[in-house]
Design brief:
Elements: H1 9-27, E1 31-37, H2 42-59, E2 63-69, H3 74-86, E3 91-95, H4 97-106, E4 112-117, H5 120-123, E5 137-141, H6 146-156, E6 162-168, H7 172-187, E7 191-197, H8 200-213, E8 216-219, H9 223-226, H10 229-239, E9 243-245, H11 248-254, E10 257-260, H12 263-280, E11 290-291, E12 296-299, H13 301-307, E13 316-317
Parallel strand pairs: 1-2, 1-3, 3-4, 4-5, 5-11, 6-7, 6-8, 8-9, 9-10, 12-13
Antiparallel strand pairs: 10-12
Length: 319
């Protein structure tokens, strides 16, 4: 005969205390999150801010951040990532393609979330990418529908002849965007010209040639472009060459129109992913890449007025 064991009051109290202590210990666990942002410009800044806000709302003072901004310098980006790894952070936010590539090369154990990444397959050289990176990597993509951006060009410039595609050849995401954009534009009947530069020193002469040969320029979500918008504007405006951009921040500085996503919301989504990994124990290797759910056609009113561009009513002015 098996007797059922009865808890005595002291034993029950001790058990409750042990459970309570364990719960309190779990609740008090804190996390350090490292952020590597490749360059300082509006879109990346907004994504970082959204990420921090989301994690802080979820975890409160249980999370702290170590933020590194490489200011567009590749070697500084490597140093930043290695510093975060040496500090044994619990998770790394890699804000931009270069930051993601650097982090993935540096560690296969610390969870890495990317944001402001256009196409993970291109960035990480994954063939037949299906939306799941696996291993210790996931994140969010800022890719706006490229066929939609081609349609923006068709709506605003139906009679344009040649479209110049200007981008930094050192950025894999830009290469991907340009390849797809060229296909979309040629399907709409446009002639396309490819204009590449490897660094900011080459941007001025390449842009000057593009502006002299094309009716419209398109620039993708490209860190080198985003860091040199004043230069592009100073070349294209006197020539009255409109620029369609892949993101809102670049459009504000040198463009006429774009198909916009909200980078703060993108970063916020990434922050929620980080909270699930840190506080809920979700396996990052099973988390697919997440995308913006809404896109808005926007235009730069001042620049459109200056160039005499008529904008359809469904476009919203940039603010």
């Amino acid at each position: 005969m098996i007797r059922k064991r009865k808890w005595t009051l002291p034993t029950a109290v001790i058990a409750a205390c042990i459970l309570s202590s364990a719960a309190c210990h779990a609740e008090e666990k804190t996390y350090t999150v490292g952020i590597c942002q490749f360059a300082g410009h509006g879109s990346l800044d907004s994504a970082t801010r959204g990420f921090q806000d989301a994690l802080t709302e979820k975890l409160g003072d249980r999370v702290s951040f170590t933020v590194k901004n490489a200011q567009g310098d590749f070697s500084a980006c490597t140093i930043a990532v290695n510093t975060l790894i040496s500090e044994n952070v619990d998770l790394i936010l890699a804000n931009s393609t270069t930051a993601l590539q650097t982090a993935v090369t540096a560690t296969d154990t610390i969870p890495i979330l990317g944001t402001s990444i256009t196409e993970y397959g291109a960035a990480l050289q994954i063939e037949d990418f299906d939306g799941l990176v696996g291993q210790n990597v996931s994140g969010t993509s800022d890719l706006a529908p490229l066929d939609g951006l081609a349609d923006v060009i068709k709506e605003l410039f139906p009679d344009a002849g040649k479209i110049g595609l200007l981008y930094c050849s050192a950025e894999p995401n830009s290469q991907y965007q340009i390849r797809v954009m060229q296909e979309n534009l040629e399907a709409l009947g446009y002639e396309c010209g490819i204009y590449t530069f490897s660094d900011s020193n080459e941007l001025s002469p390449v842009t000057t040639i593009a502006a002299s040969e094309c009716d419209v320029l398109y620039v993708p979500t490209d860190n080198a472009v985003a860091s040199n918008t004043e230069l592009i504007s100073n070349i294209c405006e006197p020539e009255k060459i409109p620029v369609i951009t892949g993101d809102e921040s670049t459009c504000l500085r040198c463009g006429v129109a774009t198909l916009s996503i909200d980078y703060y919301d993108l970063g916020y989504t990434t922050g929620n992913m980080a909270a699930r990994i840190l506080a809920e124990g979700e396996d990052i290797s099973t988390m697919p890449i997440e995308y913006a759910s809404e896109y808005t056609k926007k235009f730069n009113k001042e620049r459109c007025d200056s160039l005499g561009i008529e904008v359809p009513e469904d476009y919203l002015p940039l603010e």
